[in-house]
Each structure stands twice: as structure tokens, then as C-alpha cells.
Amino acid sequence: MAEEMKKMCRKVLHVNGNEISLVVDSEDLLSNVIRKQLGLTGTKVGCKAGQCGICSVILNGKVVRSCVVKMKKVENGSIITTIEGVGNKDHMHPLQVAFAKHGSAQCGFCTPGFIVSAKGLLEENQSPTRQEVREWFQKHRNVCRCTGYKPIVDAVMDAAKVIRGEMDVEALLYQHKAGDSILGSWIPRPSALAKVSGTYDYGADLGLKMPPETLHLELVQAKVSHALIKSIDTSEAEKMPGVEAVLTHKDVQGTNRINGMALFPWNKGDGFDRPILCDEKVFQFGDALAIVCADTPEHAKAAAEKVVVELEELPAYMNAPEAMADDAIEIHPGTPNVYFEQPTIKGEETKPIFEKAAHVAEASYYTTRQPHLILEPDVGFGYYDEEGRLTIHSKSICLYVHIEMIREALGIEAENIRLIQNNMGATFGYKLSPTNEALLGVAVMATGKPCYLEFDMFQTITYTGKRSSSYTDIRMAADEEGMLTGMEYDIIFDHGAYSEWGDCLAFKGNMFVGAGYDIKNIRGKSSAVCTNHAYGTAFRSYGSPQALFASECLVDELAAKMGMDPFEMRYKNVYRPGATTPVGATPEVFTWPEMFDYLRPHYEKAVKEAKAKSAETKKYGVGLSLANYCVGGDFADFSEAWAELLPAGGVAIYNCWQDHGQGSDMGTLAIAHESLRPLGIPLEKIQLVMNDTAICPDGGVSAGSRGQVFFGNAIKHACEKLIEAMKKEDGTFRSYEEMANEGLDLRYVGNFASGAYCAMIDKDTGQGTPMMQYMYGIVMSEVEVDVTTGKTTVNKMTLVTDCGTIINKTVVDGQMYGGLVQGIGLALSEDFEDLSRHTNLARCGIPTIMDAPDEMEVVYFETPREHGPFGASGVGELPLSSPHASIINAIYQACGARIRELPALPEKVLAALQEIE
Ligand code: MCN
Ligand code: FES
Ligand code: FES
């Protein structure tokens, strides 16, 4: 008998109506058996800790999280329903139709879990109230990071109506009349069906379908935040079973330094500071020291534990003040810890303005290192393709830029790298930084074999980039009437261990401190500082939530000092023609006064109700904030897309509009359909070919809310060129055959560049025209504060916004709700500070459905933009630019507690209340 006897058990299970006999390890998890043994990859896995509900299935009539159910607890004869058993694309369950209709699947990663969970609910209760639906999802821990939950509840309510026979399922289907425009409609996105039926394969699903020779990678990671590396001994690990190779920096064929894309020539660093595999130093917790490549994940993990790393610990600077102290050593020797500083000098000297100002307010504010808390852990794989190109599939949101960022580090020419975007369960920006791409590249180049790397949730949270925390000292001056006359500030971004995009972030700080107000005289400075905490990376509304938190809270504080209503203070000062932004640019539209006029009666009503409702222990308040973000890459941005006529009269659109889950498939289809309307091409004949650098052109990043405007313009241009080429003299159009017979090109390249409308800032004053266009809004939050516990609940949020023409109403509504709820997280719960505590979704404070208000209202002012396709501006980032400030202002209005350091945890609110007393 073998030394270690591994006992198995036979189970007969009824899965989705089929009797299945299989042999399982009784210690294994139900989620593993469903995905790996039954091949039912519609059930996804996120946290593996019972916190997210992604893995929900129905087991013997009860909704369970299959990642925490061991097979020994699954009785023989058990009945299991997974998403595949709820319905499929030919026989959709009303829940699936309703989820598609309401845009309840954005990235779609949580969707199978929600649908299965909702099925469990409707089997128990066909007539739930909205509150009962919310309580059900809370009880079953179904979490979503994208939708803000409201569209999910909407979908369940509609599905219940269909099940009760009160609504025909047809009412949930979008009926498109051939030739009609779909702009501004609620047509579901092309990927909706696959997402609601569980057939939309993400990286981990594709990982299970890789060839058998694929190697599984496990990282050896640093457990300290700052150290010198003395030695890395891989000899024991190499002898472990199944190990193919153990790789260190010595196996990296290039410079081993990722290109951090330093944007400004006056950045004191060169941006090349992040190693793929650490060589001389550890710069942050989780840094990769070695990669084990083995035949199974288990073998790789076991071997990784045998790698011996000798370190000499150095002082770890875990925040900006520590790294800025006089005695702090340089974290990256040769580059000062404060590596980028950008002043703003606008208008007159501010000192005399403050001296003679009628009113002055000043304060200091802190925003947290906000974690992205995406539900799909980071994942990817690589191999050499049939043309010998190093091919990497990942969650990259900037395929071509990532090639540029990793090529020198790997030591390979750009043309020999191919990047492909896997379907992804959202990024919210963290994938503007390469996470696994270069690691996979090293492993494929060293072994020559396909390699697969999956992070767990701990690694995803602790090792990927974060929103940089910020420290802002700010003061504002106003005249007797409350007109702002001057502003001074100093904003410091703790950009963590690596400088990637750090100068760009600091610049964004200058763009948005005080944004929205016509402040003629400003003196300020924004800095990026290197520390040993998690490196900073893009996060939805990059830079603006830090900056607007300071200025939007201070405007309230100033108004309070003056005894003025914060609504009036804002109304008086918002941009009107003649105004310029803090960096001296002219806004492209001036809708704020109109938006305020619309909001005024709603605000007054809300304030009145809040006052009337407030009682001894529960206080109610209404808070406002201006929402503002820019569209595009800074200064000169470009995009490219192709349109190709197909034999059967269809058109293929080629682009790399990377899809986090925001809906670039929908944006592409809608713009192509509208642009091609002269040809009368039916929707189903427009083919989308996207996100593979071997076959699609470089159109830039899916960041900066630039997709709709930049890719949209390029798609439109390509379609217009195709139409022009097809046009005959009599005004009719050539067919495919006629084009081919006449030897005319079938594929047309569309371009768009914003360089003509933008200008680089001046180094000394920070003034310039960095962006072509912006998004504008006002957030109104209505909160309840329990003054006995300090707990804040957001009861309602209203967003009045101008993002130009809405291309797809459902997509845009979803973007807005989701962004607002992320703002609740930023305001009240989210943090990544304590490396021993902030290590999972729950402890990092991800908002659950009961943290999100069911009442969310979005009102659109669609001022067409001159340079946007069909008048569109961006959308994605606006809703997260400032909702947290409106919530903090609402807390103050409710109970007088002024929170200046996020998140406003109950204990902080209580402490602030005690201070007033
Ligand atoms: N759209 C529209 N009408 C407009 C503008 C946009 O219908 N006037 C649609 C677009 O078709 C697209 C969506 O709204 O589907 C967002 O478009 P846009 O604002 O152009 O932003 P991008 O396509 O460049 O997407 C990126 C943006 C950013 S920067 C982050 S971060 C982000 C976001 O969008 N991350 C997201 N939204 C997200 N949504 C989900 N679910 N997951 C993420 O990771
Ligand atoms: Fe199972 Fe999160 S609850 S993966
Ligand atoms: Fe719910 Fe993305 S749609 S996590």
C-alpha cells in the first residue's frame, strides 16, 4: 500500500436534471467539482471565502456558496442547479432575459451567482418586495462591484412579474425595427446573452481549457515591505515533484525594469523602477522574487514554499509623511522620494487676496488607499503562437501600451509580442499597470511552454496597484457675497513603491482641486511621493476623487462659516462662459447653472424633509458635490479603428477598445450601426473583432473615459470612408462583389486625434489645455446618521449630469449607479492600509447591497459635444469623482460632524460628534 492513501468517494448527483456518477475527493470543494470535474464553468469563483456569492448554486433547494461546501457535506443523490440549469441561450429563464434587459450584467462576473440566487428566492417567494430581494442578496452575500445593485433588483422584480403571469417576457426583449437608430436606446449589449447564461468564459475558465502541457505558475513573494536581497536559493524547490523550472531575475532576458511611462520631462525619476522579479531590493509587500513553473498548481505551490530568500530589512516608509522625512533614505537609490512636483500658478498672487478676503476657510483632508475590489482575481496565460510570437492573454486594458511597458524588461521586440484581452470581471483601472503580463512573459520565454498564472483574492488585493492615498492642505477665500477670490493648496499623493503613471496622477490633482469653480487666482502644488506601501495605479476617476474631496468639502466648510447655503455657494461660483478651469483651460460646455436650476426644488424638498425627520438618535442630512472628470489621455491623444466590407454584405469593425465590463462591445456596435445607416446594414451583420494586437489596430487605452469618444470617432471615420468608397455616381452603393471586381479596397482605416484641441501645460505655471472635453455633474446624497453608534446610511443619491449624447441608455445608467456606490465605499468603508487586516473583500469594506440605496436617480443633460461622435462625451469615471464628498457633506448637515479623513467609519463619526460636544 502507498505510504499516503488518498481516499475518494463515489457520488451520484442530479446536476441540472441529469443523473451523474462521479468519483470525488470528499475534502474537495463543490465549486472545484462543478468547474473542474463537471466542466460547468458558468459557476465562477471569486473570493473562495464565502464573501461574494459569485459561486452560488442551488443544492437540494437551498442557495449555497459552493466555494465553502466540502464534497463530504454533499449527500449522495443531491440535486444541484447551476446557471447552466437555469436556462440557456435558446431557452432563457425570465431572470436571464430581465438581467440582459436591465444591464444587470456589466462585467458579468457576479451574474451567474446572482441569477442562481434569485432563482432560489423566486422558488420560495414569487412576489417579493424590493426590500425582500435586497435582504435575500444580503443574506446570501451576493456582491457586485459594477452595477450599484439597483439594476439587479429591477431585473428580479420584472422576472417575478413574468413568472406570476403579470408580464409577457416579450416586454423584456428589445424590439429593433430594421433601419431604426439604436442611439440612446436600451438595447442590451452584445455580450449580455453569454453573460446571463454563464457561457462567457473569463481567464480562469479558459485556463481550465488550456492544453495539458500547460505549466502552472506560483510566485514567491516578499512578506516585508522594504529590504535588501542578499540571496535567493532555488535548489530545494527545483527538486520538488513536477517542477519544470524555478525562475529568478537571473532568468529575465531584458532589463528587468517595467517602463513606468513617465509623462513629464521634469519628473525626477525615469519611470523604470519596477522590476519584473526583484533583484537588489524588495520595495513593497508582495513583490515577486521567484516564479515556480510546475505541472500542477499544487506542485507549484509546494515548491514555492521551498525557495529560500535571505533579506536584510530596511526601514519601511508606509505613508508619504514618513517617506518625506529628512532622515528617510531614497527608496529607489538615485531618485528622491518626492519625484514629481507640479506647481499651479494662476492669476494674481494669492497672499494679498487672502489678507483682504471677507471670508477664509482652511482645512486638511486625507483620502485612503482605495482598493479596487474587483471580484475576478487577476489571471492570465501565455504561450508562443503559430508565428512564434510571445502571446499573452490577460485583463489588460491597454494592450498596445502594455507591450511598450514590458518589451525592454523582457528583452523582446514589440513586433514579437502579441497581447489579447480575455473577457474580464472588471478592473476599474488597476489593469492600466501590467500585473501578470511580464511574469508570464518571463516564464514562457524561459520554458518555451504555455504557462498559466492565477492570483487568489489575497494576492489580488495585496499585490496589485491601488488608488493613491492623498494629503491635502487647502484654503479658499471669498468676498462678502460668497464669490471665490482665491485658492491655495498643497496636495501630496502617496504613490507607493513604484512611479508608474505617478506624475500623471499628480498633474490630475492640479486639474481637479477646485474644479468647477471660476477661481481666478490660485497658488498650489501637487506632488507624487514614493513610499513602501502598495504602488499607485489608475482607479476610476484617477486623481479627481482625492482633489475634489478637499475642495468640495472646503466649499461646504466655507459656506457654513459664512452662514450661506452650500447650494447657493456652488451656484454662484460654477463655471459660466468666460470661466477657466484650475489649469486655465476653457470648458467646452457650461451646463452647471442649468443643472443647478433643475436640482434646486429637489434639493430644497430633500433638506426640508431631512430636517422634519431628524430625531434624537437618527439625524438626516443632504450633501452636495460637483462631479467632474476629463475625457482622454493628457495633451495629445489618438485612436484608430478599421471597417471592412464582408462578402455577405456585412461589415466587420476592428478595434482594441478593451472591455473592463463597461460595455465597449455596445459602444462599438452602436457607433458602427449609426455610421453605417446609409447602407442599411442590419445589426446582426455588424461583426465585432476586438482586442487582439495581432489582428486589431492600436486605438489607445480603455482609461480616462476616452473609449466612447476616441474609439467612437475612429470607428465613425472608418465607416464613413467605407461608405464613401462604396458610393456610386448615382448615389447608390457598390456591393461587395462590385467593390472586389473593381479592385477597390475592402478595409478602411479610421483615425481620430485630439492634438489640435489640446496643449501641453507650462512647466512653471501648470497652465495649459490638457483635454479636449470633460464630463460634468452634481451629486446629491441623502443620509441618515445614527448618533448613538456613528453609523451612516445613504438613503438616496441623485446625480444630475451632462455627458453629451447618451449612446446606450442602459449602459450609461449602469455606469452611473455603479460609480455612485463605489463612492459610498470610498466615503464610508473602503481602505487598504493595514497589511494584516485589509486582506479580503469584506475587511477592505466592499459595499454590499444593503450599503447601497435602492433609490438612485440619474438625470441627463445631453449637451452635444462638438468633437464627440454624435455629440458624445465620456461617462465611466464621472460618477466616482465626488460622491464621497457629498456623503461627507451630508453627514455634516445631518449632525454637525465634519469628517476630514476617509473612510467615515462609525467610530470617526462618534469622535467628531464628541469633539463638537
Ligand atoms: N457610453 C455611452 N454614451 C456615452 C459615453 C459612454 O453609452 N456618451 C458607454 C460606452 O459605450 C461604454 C461606457 O459607456 O460602454 C463607458 O464609456 P467611456 O466613458 O467612454 O469609458 P471607456 O470605454 O473608456 O471605459 C473605461 C471607464 C474607466 S476609465 C474605468 S476605470 C471603468 C469604467 O469605464 N472601469 C469599469 N467603467 C467600468 N465599468 C465596469 N463594469 N467595470 C470596470 O472595470
Ligand atoms: Fe464563493 Fe466568493 S463566495 S467565490
Ligand atoms: Fe457584478 Fe461586474 S457585473 S461584478
From TrEMBL:
Against InterPro entries, the record matches this protein to: 2Fe-2S-bd, 2Fe-2S-bd_dom_sf, 2Fe-2S_ferredoxin-like_sf, 2Fe-2S_ferredoxin-type, 2Fe2S_fd_BS, Ald_Oxase/Xan_DH_a/b, Ald_Oxase/Xan_DH_a/b_sf, Ald_Oxase/xanthine_DH-like
What are this entry's molecular-function GO terms?
A: 2 iron, 2 sulfur cluster binding; iron ion binding; oxidoreductase activity
Q: Which residue numbers delimit the 2Fe-2S ferredoxin-type domain?
A: 9-86
Q: Which UniProt keywords apply?
A: Iron, Metal-binding, Oxidoreductase
Pfam assignment, any one: Fer2
* PROSITE patterns, per the entry: 2FE2S_FER_1, 2FE2S_FER_2
PANTHER family named in the record: XANTHINE DEHYDROGENASE (PTHR11908), XANTHINE DEHYDROGENASE SUBUNIT D-RELATED (PTHR11908:SF157)
Give the family per the record. Answer: Belongs to the xanthine dehydrogenase family.
- The molecule here is called Aldehyde oxidoreductase
- Recorded source organism is Anoxynatronum buryatiense
Lineage, top ranks: Bacteria, Bacillati, Bacillota, Clostridia, Eubacteriales
